[in-house]
Specification:
two-stranded antiparallel ribbon; eight-stranded parallel β-barrel; single chain; alpha/beta
């Protein structure tokens, strides 16, 4: 996959409560400061969920626009908005995320059990979201929670053509209760099933963070880390800031002799539009 490693940071997510995880960045100022720290540590992409004034997940259009603008002004990171939101968000709100004109967005290729909840991504929603990304020139990152979703990705590309920019980039989300396990055997099976020419990163949720990180590097892939996916740095030791997770990923990438990829190189790899 080349001589460098694309590192994405997912700093907030929609699951953890600020009251339970005080280090979670939930205000715009906290998010921008976190993004600056993570860029300096080696991140090239920021995967964004936002919160309201009460630190609850929201997809408010004006807040999304303000967030995209602030991250563009304060960092050189590629801004990738989540179209997943929280599991309770309606489809129409998730589709409107693209109106904030991000560089990229997530696009999950199927419905998955998400712990005790269900993360709904039926085929009609997937196709409408995909067609909107093509029309609005937003690069999708295809989020894959199980092997069936890899098959759905092939179906989507076969029926609706390549994404904006022409390059397919995927993220294997592993270790979610209800999705594929975060182990090397499953990672290899998923990678072997991806479309020809696709690039990929991997995300290990919770205690699978390190096994997936190491497996991804050994298989030539890229990395996503952040407090959306894990709030524990080691057993009995909470994460104190997202930059810790990026620094660890960057150190591992250097050890693998594939140092972190600069944002400018990442823009070329992912075919992101200049905005």
């Amino acid at each position: 996959m080349g001589a460098t490693t694309l590192i994405t940071v997912a700093p907030t997510g929609a699951e953890s409560a600020k009251a339970d995880v005080p280090a979670l960045p939930v205000t715009l100022d906290e998010l921008v400061q976190t993004a600056k720290e993570c860029e300096a540590a080696g991140a090239a992409v920021v995967h964004v969920h936002i919160r309201d004034d009460d630190a609850r997940p929201t997809l408010a259009p004006s807040r999304l626009r303000d967030t995209v603008q602030a991250l563009r002004e304060g960092t050189g990171l590629i801004v990738q908005l989540s179209t997943g939101g929280a599991v309770t968000d309606p489809y129409e709100d998730r589709l409107r995320v693209l109106d904030a004109e991000p560089d990229m967005c997530s696009l999950t290729c199927g419905t998955v059990n998400f712990g005790a909840d269900v993360f709904m991504n039926p085929w009609p929603f997937m196709t409408e979201l995909y067609e909107r990304t093509q029309a609005m020139e937003v690069v999708p990152e295809f989020e894959l929670f199980d092997l069936g979703q890899v098959a759905a990705l092939h179906r989507l590309l076969d029926r609706h053509g390549p994404p904006y920019g022409g390059h397919v980039h995927c993220d294997l989300v592993m270790g979610v209760p209800g999705g594929m396990p975060g182990d090397t055997r499953t990672l290899v099976a998923a990678v072997e099933a991806l479309p020809e020419g696709a690039t990929w990163s991997a995300t290990g949720v919770g205690r699978t963070t390190l096994p997936v990180l190491l497996a991804a590097l050994s298989a030539g892939g890229h990395l996503r880390v952040g407090m959306e996916d894990t709030i524990t740095y080691a057993k009995g030791r909470p994460v104190t800031a997202n930059v810790e997770l990026v620094e660890r990923a960057a150190s591992a990438a250097h050890l693998a002799q594939r140092p972190p990829m600069p944002p400018a190189e990442a823009r070329g790899l992912l075919a992101v539009k200049r905005r």
